[in-house]
Structure prediction request, 733 residues.
Amino acid sequence: MPVTLGLLLALSFVVSLLALAFLIWAIANRQITIDQHDAETVFEAGEVRGDAGEEAHPHRFDPVQAGIDQISARPVLVLIAAATFWLVAGSVFGLIASLKLHWPDWLDFAAPLTFGRMRTLHLNLVIYGWLSQAGVASVMWIIPRIFHTPSRRPQLIIWGALLWNIGVTLGAVAIARGWTDGEEWLEIPWQVDIFLAAGGACFIAPLIQTTRARQVHHIYVSGWYFLAAILWFPVLFVVANLPLYGGAQEATINWWFAHNVLGLWLTPLGVGAAYYFIPKIIGKPIYSYAVSLLGFWGLALFYSQVGIHHLIGGPVPTWLVTLSVVHSVMMFIPVIAVAINQHVTVAMNLWALRESIPLRFISFGAVMYTLASFQGSIEALRSVNTITHFTQYTVGHAHLGAYAFVSLVMFGAIYQILPRATGRVFPWPGLLKLHFWLVVIGFAIYFLALSIGGVLQGLAMLDATRPFRDSVEVVLPYLQARSVGGTLMTLGHLVFALNLLGLAFMTRDESASTVAAE
Amino acid sequence: MNRYLPLSILALAILAFATLMLVIAPGIQIDARNVPEGLRNYTQAEQNGRDVYVAMGCVYCHSQQPRSPDQAPDGERGWGRPSVASDYAFDAPHQLGTMRTGPDLLNVGARLPSEGWHLTHLYQPRAIFDWSIMPAYPFLFERKDRAAPSDTVVTLPPAYAPESGVIVARRDALDLVAYLRALDRTYPSPTDALRDDGYASGPAAEDPNASEGDS
Prediction:
């Protein structure tokens, strides 16, 4: 033990020295200096600024962006359509799983319908089907725009989407039939994962090509998040899915992966999209651009090492758990940095929230990122974790991050992208607002129920004088409330899908006439 | 930040460092532990049963990692001594779990050794605990008019018994119960025990193994 500890300490010392050397090099070579002027990269020269409130009105014609958007539009639309399908399917499975927790004898006649598989289908479909594809769609949309150059090889992206969706479909069938790799977040069998890996490669190659052909001097902050995420996720995915591990070691790989899917994949996608759309919609650059550097590198350094807080009190080395707890708390730094940039920009332009429904989604999601991260940092403290670990509280927290933050940003991004990618408008603007309120109210019920219920469940389990059944009975009403919230969220997703269908099936004539009218 | 290559190299380097700390270093440390003397590998039937456990997703409600008495009363609930890394030497995929909608199962074989109890409980948990919210697994069983000599008949209270005939366990149910009964890590904690002792307090905290001794 002391030898290992000593080695690790020496190692982290060496790494810190290397990092410091890199920092000095970067400053000396002006790699790090960015100024407020760079934040203007999101705008084109001569662009009419402010992109709010166009979901129900035809989009202003912008020749430079139209040339860029025209190329991105097809792959982006394919990804959004597929993502929406999986969102609806994944929500239905999630709702069934939620109901089964308080109606245990409902739908118990076949193995694919059992709780363990419904829950797993829910998780894998919303992570790999919905969030990943919606995130990749916004990356495909934003990267060419901030680099002022059209997307390279759009056809390859569509092939990638095809492979990815074959992977998700086969993965869902495998899980329903009980063929699973058996670890949380890694259930899709590794043989099926090959499709996802191949599809992912078809996303990454065009993005790197587009990046190398960029026509701007400065890489805008969204680009840092996206370009890093598309390298991080493949490494995580391939390493974690190698069928080589077992025992307690496998558990550390499992949670290194699972938390990094949130931290180094979904979070950069969501934060990057928010960093682009907030200033773009408002028409003013973000508040303090230099701080965004701290947010990005802080996220990379700290988020990458928090995973083992899922194994607090478990059969893994103490130093490892402590390392993850410390990094979890350090997450306050990058999160506050992002919060300063995004929230202050919105707070100084509150009018835009009235004008733009997409901004409402994105800004709400950005606030939830701050809250989810603060909660996560506190939840990782040993004293708090003792109560909340192994309870529904964790499920509430996971949804605060993956749903209230990333999904809401994606809803807003999609509502912002679609009119611009299709030249059409949403036929029923009121339904966009309905969608917003359904998911926000539904989520509020969901989150409060699981947070309160989870704490009560945890306290019951910690009290040796109370039998285990107390922890089951005390949480039951909160599980029922969660189903109510989940139903509202699922309804919201149906409205979301309806909005997209409305836009898709509106006849060409109508859209042509509205554009011509301008 | 205007250059792609330094950005990507540094981003990957940071991930590599995290991998070293979270995966490789603990992996080396865990690998160095011997298989405890009291632990044996699963039999074919137990391993089949373990595969059923994995395929049904039992892990989403049941952990397999009792905590130390410094942290939680898991031992008092009969869930066993704090588990250590080498207790899982034969477990692939691991099923440590992150949820206790139901109780911890690492030592359920020691706590509930009866095959009949488990079969009844799997067929209909509410036949034993009316407050249970565990799923029933009727598809692991079949109804027969008359049990064959080789069949294992499930004992059921009248409320849950079929109107005619008997419920017998299929192979998967029997294997699953064999696995559950094999879940028994009540042998003493090994001397080179490795686990999170972050909750240890008082003089015992000086010796990382001291907190392992009690069960």
Observations:
- Chain A touches chain B through 101 residues (CB under 8 Å).
- Residues 511-518 of chain A have pLDDT under 50 and may be disordered.
- Chain A has 17 helices and no strands.
